Amino acid sequence: MQHSNWKEAFEVFRLMHCAGLGPNLVTVVSVLPSCNDFFGIYQGESVHGMIIKFGLSEQVSVVSALVSMYSKLGKLDSAILLFCCFTEKNNLMWNSMISGYLVNNEWNMALDAFCKMQIEGVAPDATGIINVISGCRHTKDLHVAKSIHAYAVRNRFESNQSVMNALLAMYADCGDISTSYTIFQKMEVRMLISWNTMISGFAETGDSEASLMLFCQMCHKEVQFDLVTLIGVISSLSVSEDAIVGESVHSLAIKSGCNSDVSLTNALITMYTNCGVVEAGQQLVDSCFANTITYNALMSGYHKNNLSEKILPLFYQMVKNDVKPNLVTLLNLLPVCQSQLQGKSIHGYAVRNFTRLETALATSAMGMYSRFNNIEYCSKIFSLVGERNIILWNAFLSSCAQCKQADMLVHIFKHMLFLNVKPDAVTMLSLISACSQLGDADFAACVMALILQRGFSAKDLVLNALIDMHSRCGSISFARELFDNSVEKDSVTWGAMINAYCMHGNGEAALNLFSMMISSGVDPDDITFVSILSACSHSGFVEQGRRLFKSLQADYGITPRMEHYACMVDLLGRMGHLDEAYDIVRSMPFRPSDNLLESLLGACRFHGNSKIGESVGKLLIESEHGKSRSYVMLSNIYASAGKWSDCEQLRSDMEAKGLRKDVGVSLIGMT
């Protein structure tokens, strides 16, 4: 019976009953599926009552249909009771029960039933094997999967296409794509679903080359692809980030008429944005009937391509087009809120539209509020979540660390231990951050003991944070001991120790360690270069700084960021190389930050260079972020150079713009 006719079928059944006509075997078996597909438990139990009344409850096909109905309606206990009370169980009955377990996510019970039916002398048929294979796909138990495969081979199911296709999918889902491909190669007849399973399987494992190769073979053998095939191929290209081939597959989709499907559009958006062709993704959103997933895909693409400023306008477009946001949408929005007011609006929407605050949403909201230093709201969110897992605890601890609330962090951690919540490595990172903020060597020793006791010291992230913690607490020698005792040092570990020497003003030790890092074959990353350039700046190592800044891009292919330029300008400015520092500022591919310019302006004042100081000062003042201290510094430079008219003009400009010199503050300790 067609699914579109279930309602009519049940209505005919009801009219039969009203007319006094009793149902027969075919009638009830035909009408029972309508209860789980379109109606509910009330109608199902009514039909069950009629089955008993008319003496059909001993028929295998009827009981099997009842077991299936109760299972799909979530009444697994009723299904099991019916199944157990029936004495003569055949394949149909066992298959219904195994399928019922699977529908209710009882994978182990399904496997037990599969074994038990054989013990009771019922040999599983193809449907039974396919059912239990479906269970293995969810548990991802490769050992059990191989046992079922062996059973299928022993009982000569290798010629059954449905069983073989199920095995292909099972091995792919269990992560054994090589076995899946071996089975595929041995198949005499490869159906479209066989090709699709392998193409999608290779795509999920990240082997885009194999996925594309299979698609080419499929086309060469003139096997007609479908929508699922195209989505699988496009997904693989999202991993390989091959936009050129992606455009070819997109053209193929247009020619085949599949391009109007929103699922394909969503896959194409992900592929294009992963390849950096964001404009193509935007065009697809504008030209199709976009759903929630479509907008989410483009938002994720904006995140990946560092275009966070485009996410909120896209959200407004989404709302304008009456597309309802979901949890993923909100998770994309919260990290890019430009103000606390925006964040509160999105958080408020989440509270109004979601029955309960999901852990992911709660942690994202806490992360947003902590960016605006609002620990009070973070605390409120944490208290409102009923079930607190370690992820939520870690998010709150991280918020405390980001808001510089070290005392609160320690208090929350102690409460966490009191409630027997087991900390993990991420928890330790927050605790280490608190130690770094407090600068308490005794407390740091306690944290170190806890980390050793819990066995977290071997984890790279924790080790790197410990090096930073001990250096901030003044124990540079112990930080070096931790560094020397670490077995596998990555670029972050080296960078942490170099930064430790930088904080302690030991530029020579930092440079020596950097040389050791290069000699050991570890390439420095952009953060390590910030640390070593900063060390050169604080120690006045001009030549070393010049050489390192040059090698940044020439030897390691790292594009200099604002921080790298700032370190070099600070180094050259400190040592009086103001012309060279100003040349760097003028050669920057982006606008220099106010902090960088203020650093150079301060150097100009210190060295008495009014010419460059005036140019830098004007750059700062022209900035829409111009602050009173920039005016004051430039005014002092004019005064030192005897340019009193310029000095007076600058002070008049300050008054006209309503800027006042920052008032100094004294702190008086009282006992």
TrEMBL record:
UniProtKB keywords: Repeat, Transit peptide
Coiled coil: none
Superkingdom of origin organism: Eukaryota
GO annotation terms (biological process): RNA modification
PPR repeat ranges per the UniProt record: 90-124, 191-225, 291-325, 389-423, 490-524
Cross-referenced Gene3D superfamilies: Tetratricopeptide repeat domain (1.25.40.10)
GO molecular function: RNA binding
InterPro entries: E_motif, PPR_At4g14850-like_plant, PPR_rpt, TPR-like_helical_dom_sf
Keyword NAD set for record: no
The keyword Repeat is assigned to this record: yes
NCBIfam families linked: PPR (TIGR00756)
Record protein name field: Pentacotripeptide-repeat region of PRORP domain-containing protein
Organism, as annotated: Panicum hallii
